[in-house]
Amino acid sequence: MTLVAGLEPSNLQSKIFLTKGISVVYAVVRAGGRQEKVSVGTIVTLDRIKADANGNISMAAVLLVDGDKVTIDATELAKVKVTAKVLGDLRGPKIIIQKYKNKTGYKKRMGFRADLTRVQVTEIK
């Protein structure tokens, strides 16, 4: 594989796949106040999400790339459905918050652990 000047690795990968006839399909989804780039089979850790009875969730797409066709129109993206299977719930690392004021004896220590869900994308259609 030879590197092409001026192309980022992600763009380079898309260009290589397109030249070989393999179309690259991925979506940027909105989940938990953030946006994640996902494709089929991608495992992503998100903020805690409740799943339906089958253990599946649905996410809203913000952008869809299907080969060389890029979809950003809201009416067309409303038709796009990104589904994922919940692999499990977990908790993030503990974050310690400390406050201290000099000469007053004021000290405060708190901790926080985020509730997270690990999901695997099963379908983009």
User: What share of residues is helical?
Assistant: 10-25%
Q: Domains counted in the coordinates: how many? A: 1
Q: Mind describing the biggest β-sheet?
A: 7 strands, antiparallel
* End-to-end gap: 31 Å
| Percentage of β-strand residues | over 45%
Question: Radius of gyration over alpha carbons?
Answer: 20 Å
Q: Count all strands and give the number.
A: 9
Q: How many separate helices?
A: 2
Oligomer: single chain
Shape: elongated
Polypeptide structure, described:
With 125 residues, the protein is mostly beta strands. The chain has one domain. It is built from 2 helices and 9 strands; from the N terminus they run H-E-E-E-E-E-H-E-E-E-E. It is elongated, with a radius of gyration of 20 Å. The chain starts with 8 loop residues before the first helix and ends with a strand.
Summarize the structure.
This protein is mainly β and 125 residues long. The protein is built from 2 helices and 9 strands, in the order H-E-E-E-E-E-H-E-E-E-E. Helices cover 13% and strands 52% of the residues.
What is the fold's blueprint, element by element?
Blueprint: H1 9-20, E1 25-31, E2 34-38, E3 43-47, E4 56-66, E5 69-71, H2 74-77, E6 82-91, E7 95-101, E8 106-112, E9 115-124
Antiparallel strand pairs: 1-2, 1-4, 3-9, 4-5, 4-6, 6-9, 7-8
Keywords:
125 residues, disordered N terminus, 2 helices, two-stranded antiparallel sheet, 7-stranded antiparallel beta sheet, mainly beta
